[in-house]
Amino acid sequence: MLTLLHNFHPQAIFISFGFFHIYWYGIFVVLGILAALGVSFFFAKYYLVKKDSLFDLSFWLIINGLIGARVYDIFLQLPYYTQNPLAIFKVWQGGLAIHGGIIAGIITIYIFSRQQRISSWKLAALIVPGVALGQAIGRWGNYFNQELFGLPTNSPWGIPIDLLNRPFNYLTVNYFHPTFLYESIGCFLIFIFLCLFNLFLIKKQKLTNYYFVWMVSFYVVLYSILRFSLEFIRIDETPTFLSLRWPQFISLILIFLSSILLTFNPHAKTKNNQAQK
Question: Cα separation of 225 and 182, whole Å?
Fold first, then answer.
C-alpha cells in the first residue's frame, strides 16, 4: 500500500456528469458518517438508548457538526475567505476543521440531552467511538484533495503532490509526509481502544455516568495528543499563538480540561455510593 501511495497521483474528482462532479472528499465524508452511525447504533442497545432518539440525535449532529467544522475553518483561514467569499460554499474542496465539529457536537448533545432527559455523558460516550472511526475514514478525502500534507520527505511512503498544490517554499520538492495517513491510522487505533473499553464496561455492567466521563475524556485526550504531535510536521497555513500552531494550542486546552475531568470526575460520588451498596 505504501508503494502505491508513493507512486499514485490522486485526483479530486471521482466521476463527472457534464458540469456535475462527485468528489472523493465528499465520498469519504459520507462513508465516515455512515461508519460512525453504524458503530453508535451497535452500542445503543447496550446503552439502552432508543434507536429513534439516536437517529434524531445523529441527524442534528451531522448537520450541526458539518456547519461547525466549516465555520471553524473559515475562522482559521479568514484572510483567504475574505478575499474569496464564494469559496465559503465550496465544501467539496475541503475545509472541515474537526475541532469545530467537536465544539458543535458538544453543544448539540447538551441541548438534545436536556430536551430528551437523557444523560449527556451517556450520549457523548455512545458517539465518540464512531466519531474516531469516522475521522479515520474521512481523512482519506484530504489525500485525494492533495491537502493537509506534511513536510518534505525521502521516505518510501512519501506521497507526490502536484505542483499547483505545493506551498511556494516547496515548489522543487516532489514528496511529502502523508499526515492524512498518520492521523487516519491514529484515529483507527483510538477507535479500537474505545470499542474494547466499551466491551469491557458492557461485560462488567459498568455503563454509568462515571465511566462515560472516562470514555469521552479518553477520546479527547488521545485525539488531542495525536493532533498536537502531527502539527509539528504539517505545513498548511494556520494561525499561531504562543509559538504554537492554533490546533496545537486548542489540543493542549482539551488535554488539560479532560485531565481535570479524569482526576475530579463529577460522578465519582455516585460511583462510591454504588460501591457501598
Answer: 13
Q: Which residues contact 219 (CB under 8 A, 6 or more apart)?
A: 128, 129, 131, 132, 190, 194
Span 143-175, pLDDT tens digits: 999 999 999 999 999 999 999 899 888 989 989
What was the pLDDT predicted at 6? 74
User: How do residues 202-240 score in pLDDT, each as one tens digit?
Assistant: 999 999 999 999 999 999 999 999 999 999 999 998 999
Q: Tell me if residue 47 falls in helix, strand or coil.
A: helix
C-alpha cell at 50: 432508543
Query: ∠272-215-199 over CA atoms, to 5°?
Result: 95
pLDDT 10s digits, 21-44: 899 999 999 999 999 999 999 999
3-state secondary structure of 113: helix
Give me 144's grid cell: 485525494
11: which 3 cell numbers?
485526483
Position 14: which residue type? F
Of 62, 55, 43, give the one whose Cα is nearest residue 108: 62
Query: For residue 17, what are the β-bridge partners?
Result: 20
Q: What angle do CA 110, 28, 77 make, to 5 degrees?
A: 65
Q: How far apart are CA 31 and CA 35, in angstroms?
A: 6
Contact 125, 215 (CB under 8 A): yes
All 3 cell numbers of residue 239?
494561525
Q: How confident is the model at residue 273 (pLDDT cuts 50, 70, 90)?
A: very low
- Number of neighbouring beta carbons within 10 Å of residue 78: 11
List of residues 6+ apart from 179 with CB closer than 8 A: 148, 149, 150, 230, 233, 234
